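Materials and Methods. Structural model of NADP-dependent mannitol dehydrogenase. The 273-residue sequence of NADP-dependent mannitol dehydrogenase from Baudoinia panamericana was retrieved and submitted for structure prediction as follows.
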Amino acid sequence: MDDEVAMPRLNTLPPADMNWTITLRDKVVAITGANRGIGLGIAEVCLANNAKAVYSLDLMDPSEDFAALSKKSQGRFKYKQMDVTSEESVKKAIDEIVDEEGAIHGMIANAGMTKHQPALDFTMAQVKQLFELNVFGAWNCATAAARKFISLGVKGSIVFTASMTSYRPNRAAPSAPYGGTKAAVRNMTHTLAMEWAQYGIRVNSISPGFVKTAMTYYVEKAPDWNLKMQYYGGMPRLALPQELGGAYVYLLSDVASYTTGIDIPIAGIVGAW
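The predicted structure was written out as tokens:
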């Protein structure tokens, strides 16, 4: 935070009349990269748990699946074009959300990209692109959200999408730079949680294993897929994006008022190979 700004510390204890139901009722949540894939699945679960409004902040145009979910949720699922790698773009989107909704309570820094190939085949430009989006983009979203939470006096929640590759290599589809970006995100989670706890801001992350999206379609098509499932045990399939949503909802909810600085792996035991 800026050195010249003296920020008051908030009482981080839950209220005496706390409702211990896990719900997002009355909460406004922003999710980066939610026009498709994991972000869209998370949005669906947030809306099912009564979020007042969920915003997809995405550089790409909304998909047909986005439009279907927005219609199903009676317009509570909304879109703003935003570039996570631009501080100004992120700040503008968050300001607009607050102007429209009166507040923002949760930020899910989910947007990211991957490229799977041997380390020696990467160009430096490709490595920099991964770090620019996955690390610097997540940083922009987290810091912009934190500043807004503090200015509004909101005990907000920030959730990063990390990855099981932040723990160990993905043998099925190796990517040393991608794993490095997600390890950075997971480490950043712990430090930001420590720094911002005094403001009542909680920072956590989720580490998915393989999730069924357009980027992972090839995994189940591998000729040794069934053999790998027998060897590694666990859930013998890829996760649906919506199966990650419950953990995000919990971390965004007021019931998680003492949960900060952790990573939750969701990988059906199998994880990354």
